[in-house]
């Protein structure tokens, strides 16, 4: 039976981390809201016996799983996208959870006051938060991925000797940052050569390349997590 | 061999969610930095083969695990604090991950502009963020826990028929919110009767009660995640 992915239409958003794993594996899946509309989401969040707090969530028969990192932890072994070694699988999950933290921070740069107000109503606060984000947080997170890749230098992947879902998520983060902060990334990408090389390698994988040129891959836009507001990017 | 917990001294912080599980289970553990100082933390984050991004992390022999929710997912079966049923264990992990998101939001109320600046230098922004937090986010998260407890009404626990680490974490969140937002919690706790009842039940468990009166339980303070600033709380 096909996996059913539930996520808001109109944006890549957090659902994209799950899509990339399903696409890389060539898995049979339905992007349910894109077929039936966003109205399919709320009933499950109310009526399910184990109601997810927010999209994305995945239904696999009787099992309903929410939280991106947990969906990937669940799918990893089924899609061949995580090591069979339990300690390596644990480490992959830990990396993904740290990516979750990073993604939340990336979102909050344009919404420091909260999700309820428009960006336009928190531009000054966003500009202030973006300073620290550019100066400290981007280097801290990207530097961490770079350090992990340096410690695992033989394979070029984040964990062990093979591709995992965490590598696909790193690709998505790099793509998103390139879109949202092009000047900053252009100026700093030399500082994370291994992360950039891994990201380029993922981009060229046949299933990912095919997906990225398909109409299933929505373009980045100003409703998603990664948003390009020139005033939040580094100076020229 | 004793579990080794690594976390900053001086605050309960995120480490407390792990401590409560270890204490409830009567596990043999060392709170390493409290014995040797905070200087023990950084070397592991630099030199470990799988370097955690930030404290807390747990060392169990050769295994090093970071991220609160993952530490609890790892310890759960060993401490008898999660269901042996894999789908229930997955659900417990999902609840804990949503608590992680909630805890990050609770922290960001007093630090909306970033962790690098003092609260005193972002008081206006914090006041603005706190409005949405009180009006929308607290009800959304506490309402979600309440809904889960209503769906699992027979046991009074979050998952299945027995205590799990997620119940202990809910207790910690309620205690922290009571400290940080006493007026808001006093006014709203009638809206989440099941969550409040579970929290009270946890507080009375012998090992938790003993721990909470021991000197291992630090008081809440203005350096931790849960901070009491009267100006961020609800009006009288």
Automatic annotation (TrEMBL), chains A, B:
Gene Ontology MF term list: glutathione transferase activity
One Pfam match: GST_C_3
Cross-referenced Gene3D superfamilies: 1.20.1050.10, Glutaredoxin (3.40.30.10)
SUPFAM superfamilies recorded: GST C-terminal domain-like (SSF47616), Thioredoxin-like (SSF52833)
InterPro entries, alphabetized: Glutathione-S-Trfase_C-like, Glutathione-S-Trfase_C_sf, Glutathione_S-Trfase, Glutathione_S-Trfase_N, GST_C, GST_superfamily, Thioredoxin-like_sf
Superkingdom of source: Bacteria
Domain GST N-terminal: 1-83
GO terms under biological process: glutathione metabolic process
Domain GST C-terminal: 85-225
Protein name, as recorded: Glutathione S-transferase
Organism, scientific name: Agaricicola taiwanensis
């Amino acid at each position: 039976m096909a996996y059913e992915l539930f996520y808001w239409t109109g944006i890549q958003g957090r659902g994209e981390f799950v899509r990339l794993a399903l696409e890389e594996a060539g898995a049979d899946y339905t992007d349910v809201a894109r077929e039936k509309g966003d109205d399919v989401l709320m009933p499950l969040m109310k009526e399910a016996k184990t109601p997810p707090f927010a999209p994305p969530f995945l239904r696999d028969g009787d099992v309903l799983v929410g939280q991106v990192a947990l969906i990937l932890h669940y799918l990893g072994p089924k899609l061949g996208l995580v090591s069979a070694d339990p300690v390596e699988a644990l480490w992959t999950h830990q990396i993904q959870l740290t990516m979750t933290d990073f993604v939340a921070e990336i979102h909050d740069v344009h919404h420091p006051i909260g999700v309820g107000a428009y960006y336009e109503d928190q531009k000054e606060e966003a500009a202030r938060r973006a300073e620290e984000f550019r100066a400290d947080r981007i280097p801290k997170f990207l530097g961490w991925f770079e350090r992990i890749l340096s410690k695992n230098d033989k394979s070029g992947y984040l964990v062990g000797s093979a591709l995992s879902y965490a590598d696909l998520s790193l690709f998505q983060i790099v793509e998103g940052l390139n879109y949202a902060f092009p000047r900053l990334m252009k100026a700093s990408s030399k500082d994370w050569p291994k992360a950039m090389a891994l990201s380029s390698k993922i981009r060229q994988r046949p299933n990912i390349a095919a997906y990225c040129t398909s109409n299933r891959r929505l373009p980045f836009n100003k409703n998603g997590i990664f948003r390009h507001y020139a005033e939040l990017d580094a100076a020229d």
